Amino acid sequence: MSPLVVGITVFVLAAFVGFEVISKVPPTLHTPLMSGANAISGITIIGALVAAGLGASFVAQVLGFLAVATATVNVVGGFLVTDRMLEMFRSRSDREKQKK
Amino acid sequence: MTSILYLGAAVCFILGLKRLGSPGTARSGNRLAAFGMLAAIVLTLVTENVVNWGTIVAGLAVGSVIGAWAAVRVQMTAMPQMVAIFNGLGGIASALVAATEIVVDTDLSHLPAETAISIIFSILIGSITFTGSFVAFAKLQGILPGRPLKFPGQQAINVLVGIGVVAVSIWAALAGVANAYWVVAGLSLLIGVLGVVPIGGADMPVVISLLNSFSGLAAAAAGFVIQSNPLIIGGALVGAAGLILTFQMTEAMNRSLANVLFSGFGTEGGGSVAGMSDLPVKRATPDDAAITLGYADSVMIVPGYGLAVAQAQHAVRKLADALESRGTRVQYAIHPVAGRMPGHMNVLLAEADVPYEQLLDLEQADPQFAQTDVVLVLGANDVVNPSARDDPGSPIYGMPILNVDRAGTVIVVKRSLSPGFAGIDNPLFYEDKTLMLFADARDGLEKTIAALKDL
Questions:
Q1: CB A27 within 8 A of CB B334
Q2: Whether B454 is catalytic
Q3: Is A71–B361 a contact, with Cβ atoms under 8 angstroms apart?
């Protein structure tokens, strides 16, 4: 199989896994789901690291730097803010435990 | 070996998303996904032949500081804006990865067709996500007006730009000229602006979900450019997640995606609404509200975007505590499009320490209204409008609503009788069982709580 066909296969299968896993998330968690998913889309940081590490021309360096920086904001900010939100989701029993 | 380790990172993403499906496991799910990301980053740095450590360290440092600062500082009410910006930055990062490929490649004309096409898709989707997200941010933040922006010749311009980007993309792929790729980038950035500007503020839950999907697709496209499976898998997962949320939102509005994106809903404004506004309403004071609520056995609170605007989530919790200490059962009914992004209202109430078992979604809440003594509507309007159910002539006819008019009494806290974003009058306000408490949500709640203590 050519790399393109392999890539498309992986893409389609992963999309189906995504649909399966995410349709079960209840509406209460939709905002953290979105910000968490958003952080995962920051996986493009791998491409950014490769691009920035090539050591080519000045322009390539600038583009690579911007790619790494923007992807890092996405990853670090996305996971942290999701964690901050999820920390607030407490059940009634959690709340009572905290009061004691 | 490296591929297997990357696969491990992708598995962390999938399991992490799966654990995000329940409030009890969600936090560990997010951390698992974060761990997968860290592992993938370290793996890349170790295995790739990195020449320029300086650029990488600088980028990581700058990004981490900005990201962490924003994540810690942001208010929960501003979460939609925040997610919009993160979406946009993720999108442009993918576009920049593809752009670097163009700059590094000295002989673009010998690029394999599939790589050229992948580069174009990365740049196209990534750039649209970037500017589209920033326009959405500006609308949510109030920098741009929330109403749809229209100008003469808008559609002609949109069609021309659309045709232009397709034509230039084909030219770029066939001729392999760097400048053609840059034109594609410029036009894509323009499309993001033109695409979101005509969409009204209340439709932002759909727009943000769609841009979230795009940020994933851009990452997947970048994965095709550098032939990296973790990017393709991660991107596809996020693309699917965003798409599911997009369609859940359009369903909750009973509109098609095309209608949300292209119709400029909400332009009618409030001025043309006549007829009902002359009908009498029952005005209530905070004392009246306190008496009605205080002697109820069960209360259902219906929050809307007005609650977020008034920052009244903590006041709601205080009222609920006061009622619960009197033996009243308190629950919350949350419509899918109650906030400015999916699930936004739930986060605000969680911030105010409302236990998540009390938060009901549309389907859970619906059978309960008939047995509820008092419904308290806070800054919500269209999502409780009975004409969506009863009046086939209404613009929102068919939209699933919370049937609050089936409860014993309805108290609506609202600043005035002004119509919602759709510019539609709400018959609920004129019903016999409805009490209107004209006040800012927080102010009205504080006064009701005070009155409740004197009961």
A1: yes
A2: no
A3: no
